[in-house]
């Protein structure tokens, strides 16, 4: 078996989960043995599934530590899917490399940049070691051009660079934006 790493990256709403689900469903059609993981921190729609903004879903196992993957796969596992890879610990890169070395197809989707436009968690390292990288775009919610960044808004206003938490009662939201329309208040 030839293992390799496929990375699907881009901003929020770019269709990363959709593309991950599409590839995994096709692997299922090919009767491949698949296991899908997501970090426990992301519970936006469902605790157990990877769900895209357009409503597609696939069953997944929420884990809080990348090394848990070893406990949850077996000799029959041929494809491992990982969503929201940016939220995993740095070890996720070693795990992905190790699985690929063992002949497993690893498909990982996640944000390449945070709301500041800076490289996000383990994603940059994963890109460096991946065989295949697809960087996909959303639609800029301001101008309609291809969006490469995630705009963080607090009560509808661009968030500050240093805001890690927000005031109780404030409403946090995100939208996809292009470089020109993306705002980070310093
Ligand atoms: P991601 O995993 O990258 O956040 P999803 O796969 O969950 O993205 O969702 C992609 C879907 O989101 C698109 O197919 C579309 O239906 C919807 N969508 C909502 N807002 C936008 C936007 N600004 N640009 C592109 N797609 C959007
Ligand atoms: Zn724009």
Name its key features.
186 residues, alpha/beta, Rossmann fold, Wheat Germ Agglutinin (Isolectin 2), domain 1, 2 domains, 6-stranded parallel sheet, 3-stranded antiparallel sheet, 4 helices, 13 strands, binds adenosine-5'-diphosphate, binds zinc ion
Write a concise synopsis of the structure shown:
This protein has 186 residues and is α/β, with parallel strands linked by helices. It has helices at 16-29, 68-72, 92-101, 123-129, and strands at residues 4-9, 34-39, 49-51, 57-59, 61-63, 79-82, 105-110, 132-135, 138-139, 146-147, 149-154, 157-158, 172-177.
What would your notes on this structure say?
The protein has helices spanning 16-29, 68-72, 92-101, 123-129, and strands spanning 4-9, 34-39, 49-51, 57-59, 61-63, 79-82, 105-110, 132-135, 138-139, 146-147, 149-154, 157-158, 172-177. With 186 residues, the chain is α/β, with parallel strands linked by helices. The protein has 2 domains: 4-136, P-loop containing nucleotide triphosphate hydrolases (Rossmann fold, 3-Layer(aba) Sandwich), CATH 3.40.50.300; 137-186, Wheat Germ Agglutinin (Isolectin 2), domain 1 (2-Layer Sandwich). The strands form 4 sheets. The chain has a 6-stranded parallel β-sheet with strand order 5-2-6-7-1-8, sandwiched between helices. A 3-stranded antiparallel β-sheet has the order 12-11-13, with no helix packed on it. Strands 3-4 form a two-stranded antiparallel ribbon. A hairpin with a 5-residue loop joins strand 3 (49-51) and strand 4. Helix 3 runs parallel beside helix 4. It starts with a strand and ends in a 9-residue tail after the last strand. The model has no long low-confidence stretch (mean pLDDT 94). Residues 140, 142-143, 145, 177-178, 180-181 line the site of zinc ion.
């Amino acid at each position: 078996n030839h293992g390799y790493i496929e990375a699907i990256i881009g901003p929020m709403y770019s269709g990363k989960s959709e593309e991950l689900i599409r590839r995994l469903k096709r692997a299922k059609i090919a009767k491949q043995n698949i296991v899908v993981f997501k970090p426990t921190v992301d519970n936006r729609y469902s605790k157990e599934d990877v769900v895209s903004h357009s409503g597609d879903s696939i069953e997944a196992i929420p884990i809080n530590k990348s090394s848990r993957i070893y406990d949850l796969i077996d000799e029959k596992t041929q494809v491992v899917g990982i969503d929201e890879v940016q939220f995993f610990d740095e070890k996720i890169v070693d795990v992905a490399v190790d699985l690929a070395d063992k002949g497993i197809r690893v498909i990982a989707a996640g944000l390449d940049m945070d709301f500041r436009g800076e490289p996000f968690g383990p994603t940059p390292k994963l890109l460096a070691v991946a065989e295949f990288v697809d960087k996909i775009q959303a639609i800029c919610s301001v101008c309609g051009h291809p969006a490469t960044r995630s705009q963080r808004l607090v009560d509808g206003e661009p968030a500050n660079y240093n805001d890690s938490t927000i005031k109780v009662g404030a409403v946090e939201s995100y939208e996809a934006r292009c470089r020109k329309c993306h705002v980070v208040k310093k």
